């Protein structure tokens, strides 16, 4: 009989007495039975041993022996340094923001071609993606406001930003195939080309009206008041020129039967017209804000004078000696506003209102210490509409600036802008129930919007110098933002959205 090496090792481990043959009568019969039983026992023990060995080997291969359970499902982000996480979160925020904006533009044209009902599922995707993007910016704002010494907290927030941006990508990609089928431009780009032509005609007329409106606005408002309006008018013209160039390229490509090139040009043209449309909308809103501000200056003066009277009485009673400086500043703001109105010259009504509001704010700090809560709320209600008006103006102006230069703007400026929008929305929501809180939020929105524009202006200037020009890219289309190549965010691969081809190195 041949004994395996494993069986042999087991045999030598069995006590020697087990194999001692009897010397009495019957040894010939009993001995073999004992040996047979022993061999059967060894075979069973060997099977158990081998089975256990295979299990142990399997556990070893699976890495579960001597390894904490948590290490099996370790988050790959934990292997990155804090600086790598910061960079990854920033890149993904920029990519997600661009993807949402590009998707919004794509839906505008899809809706114009196929109707709101056809694009409803994609609009739901976009709305959900906006919520994830808003959450991402909220988390980034927490990082920016956190204590630099709390590295663990920062790492946790960066990881949450990455996951939240991933949700933006996943949401925009959830109906990619259906959108591709709906808007298969390579099958027939002619309808989209016709829609682009019509859109360009409408926007040219609209820009012409905006230019005519500027002539009337110049009669009433100063150059400083109209600076953003003029800039938007120029930017809208640049966008329409780029759109017309793309339309011409698309038309030529269609005539040549080159549908792929036609699609690239169409998407560039659509993006440029969408930018022009937003700028024109902002100009129309700015004109209304200037008119509203001009009507409210008299009210602002009256309210400031009312506060001045209370402040002087309080100061003269010796209750708040720190009011001396704010009283002088408020008197100066009122005098300046009255002179501007009486001069008959062109004014900046938003700037005059802003100066009056600053004077209010300086007076309110010491006055609130002697006012009761009802009086504070009453004062806040009087200020709120003016604060909201100037906040909306500043937020919209900064937003226009960022949108028109978004390919050179980092996550820092975008985060400030998103937080400014959030503060303004909350101020408008809680105004009736918490007027004091609403005023604070409106003021915070203005501050953040100014910071966003300042950061974006520096970054856009740097990007312009580095690129020495540039133009319109395709912007990503409707869908996710995992671009291939050197512009791809860390951790992403694959395509870059619904049906878009990329022509320039923008991201």
TrEMBL record:
This is TPM domain-containing protein. Residues 165-213, 269-296 form a coiled coil. The lineage of its organism: Bacteria, Bacillati, Actinomycetota, Actinomycetes, Micrococcales. The chain crosses the membrane at residues 20-50. Keywords: Coiled coil, Membrane, Transmembrane, Transmembrane helix.
